[in-house]
Amino acid sequence: MWKPEYRSARPRFAVLATGVGPRVQLDVWSTKKITLYLFEVRENFYEAEAPHWPDEEAGNTIKYPVRFGIEPLAVLHDVRLDEDGPLGMAASDAIRVSGTQRGIGMVVDMDPQPLLDAAGIPTTWSEEQTVALNQTPGFTAEQVKPPKQPKGPSGGAGFVSDPKKRKAIELHAEDMAAAHYEGEGWTVERLGKPYDLHCTRDREERRVEVKGTTGAATSVDLTINEVEHARDPQNTVDLFVVSDIKVDLRTDNYTASGGRVLHLHDWAPAEADLRPRSFEYRLPLA
């Protein structure tokens, strides 16, 4: 639900807390320790148009209309809730109160440096005002789930388990990108690989990577080939991201519509904005 402070708030970080029952007095609460999931906020509050989270996808309905885009940074265990803990008392009490109000978030003014230090993330926030993604461990949606999770569809931000739905999202994002460039006078050729769109206009050339999601525009999955292609100085590459895409599951092939566009021109992903999800491991010689 919308709260008045959401309209003007511009949060940079968010925390999700688990492990302690909130229905206690503050003096009792402050003696406890908690598990925190630390996120960077990459997109401000907005009203969602598309089901995205697993329980929303299961019922094809929007349960959480007020959203903001978040990027997982780190998990902190055994975090003190007293005034000497990394949260400070104001944020600690806000977590307690939020827990008694169906988990509806509260906006608190606090210095994030103690949390970043506790997570082992190397940055001086007061000077840099940024966090290098490649210096954070991150975590998956599976790690946030409670031990006994009811059966149902799983997935996280940016991932859709239904291949038919995923294809509809990809094609819709590509259609929007092609229409945008054609509207600017480009001739558009759809390739798919090694990149999505090849655009030419007179002697100009642009190569376009297209990404689509039902969630917020916070991060996208890239292959090593996509990264290297975008970084090659011989290529002029754009990134075209469509977020909050609606998908009608009642049609045979699924019908995607809507969405909000983030368009990055002359795109070359910086090392600080890339976090590897897996590694190739070379086995020892026999």
What's the short story on this structure?
The chain is α+β, with helices and mostly antiparallel strands.
List keywords for this structure.
alpha+beta; 9 helices; 10 strands
Question: Mind explaining what this structure looks like?
Answer:
By secondary structure, the protein is of the alpha+beta class. The chain is built from 9 helices and 10 strands. The chain has helices at 4-8, 26-29, 54-59, 88-99, 113-118, 125-128, 141-144, 163-183, 224-231; strands at residues 13-18, 33-47, 66-80, 187-190, 197-201, 204-212, 237-243, 246-248, 255-257, 260-264. A 5-stranded mixed sheet has the order 4-5-6-7-10, sandwiched between helices. It has a 3-stranded antiparallel sheet with strand order 1-2-3, with no helix packed on it. The protein has a two-stranded antiparallel ribbon with strand order 8-9. A hairpin with a 6-residue loop joins strand 8 (246-248) and strand 9 (255-257). The longest helix is centred in the middle third of the chain and has 21 residues, at 163-183.
Secondary-structure topology with pairs:
Layout: H1 4-8, E1 13-18, H2 26-29, E2 33-47, H3 54-59, E3 66-80, H4 88-99, H5 113-118, H6 125-128, H7 141-144, H8 163-183, E4 187-190, E5 197-201, E6 204-212, H9 224-231, E7 237-243, E8 246-248, E9 255-257, E10 260-264
Parallel strand pairs: 6-7
Antiparallel strand pairs: 1-2, 2-3, 4-5, 5-6, 7-10, 8-9
Q: Please report the distance between the alpha carbons of the first and last residues.
A: 59 Å
In sequence order, what are the helices and strands, one letter per element?
Answer: HEHEHEHHHHHEEEHEEEE
In the sheet with the most strands, the strands line up as: 4-5-6-7-10
Uncertain runs are 147-158
Strand runs, count? 10
How helical, in percent, are the residues?
Answer: 10-25%
Radius of gyration based on Cα positions: 21 Å
* Residue share in β-strands: 25-35%
* Main sheet summary: 5 strands, mixed
Structural class, judged by helices and strands? alpha+beta
Total helices: the number is 9
What is the averaged pLDDT score? 90
Query: What is the 3D shape?
Result: globular
